[in-house]
Amino acid sequence: MFKTIREDVQSVLDRDPAARNVFEVMLCYPGLHAVWMHRITHRLWKSDFKLLARWLSQTARNLTGIEIHPGATIGHNFFIDHGMGVVIGETAEIGNNVTLYHGVTLGGTSLHKVKRHPTIEDHVVIGAGAKVLGDITIGAHSRIGANAVVVKPSPPNSVIIGVPGQIVVRSQDKLTNNKPDLEHGLLPDTIGETLSALVAHVEKLEKRLDGHASLTPAMHTPDHGIWHGGDFAI
Fold first, then answer.
1. Cβ(133)–Cβ(162) below 8 Å
2. Residue 12 near residue 28 (C-beta atoms within 8 A)
3. How much is the pTM?
4. For residue range 196-208, what is the model confidence (pLDDT) as tens digits?
5. 129 near 150, Cβ under 8 Å?
6. Mind listing the pLDDT tens digit for each residue in 188-233?
7. Cβ distance 102 to 122 under 8 Å?
8. Considering all CA atoms of the chain, what is the largest pairwise distance in Å, rounded to the nearest integer?
């Protein structure tokens, strides 16, 4: 038990630069408190003390703002940063070294009493406000961007962004890196890049139409991620 507590505290120190020392982590991190309470309620749930487990989990929810069903399975070194609004459903399965931010939902999509919540493999990072829904598997070493809505399984080493979630598979070299991937600003713009390619292609076609008026609006391919065009004010 004490080994697990030390691992949980160390996971906070490793992943949150705002954490200054062990005592601060133990006293001031509701995500850590919610995980500790879940370890107790999950054991009660497995021992068939289900009502007591649910009552304690609801008490933890009221204290921390984090709702973890006691039936959920959670691995080692699980870290919930900030935590408010996190919801983890009954049949969710979470691997080792997983990081969640506030507002994350691991939700179900079925009314049947079957596996209906996601499986999150090792070393996955899920950004603030993201929703992962249904009996799907998120591969190891993946990162889900903030506010993404993920309804399809993803292979290992993916970045998932947008609504619905668009999956981009990264270089396989990343699979050997066991450090948490907290570079939230490094997200591909799949829709923007596609539009940029289409606009560039249309511009090339228009240049071939000698004597014809431009077929595109007053907008051109982006310069360093910034689109330039006319005045769109109403």
1. no
2. no
3. 0.80
4. 778 777 777 777 7
5. no
6. 777 777 777 787 777 777 777 765 555 455 556 666 666 666 555 5
7. no
8. 80
Q: Which residue has the tokens 């997200």?
A: 187
Q: How far apart are CA 12 and CA 25, in angstroms?
A: 7
Q: How far apart are CA 66 and CA 88, in angstroms?
A: 8
Q: Is the peptide bond before 164 cis (omega within 30 degrees of 0)?
A: yes
Which residues is 29 bridged to in the sheet?
A: none
> Using DSSP, how many helices (H) and how many strands (E) does the chain show?
5, 17
Pick from 169, 167, 131: which is nearest to 150 by CA? 131
Strands 149-150 and 131-133: parallel
Token pair of 49, please? 């003390």
User: In the chain, what are the helix, strand and coil shares in percent, each to the nearest 5?
Assistant: 30, 20, 50
Complete edge-to-edge strand list for the sheet that includes strand 73-74:
73-74, 93-94, 119-120, 137-138
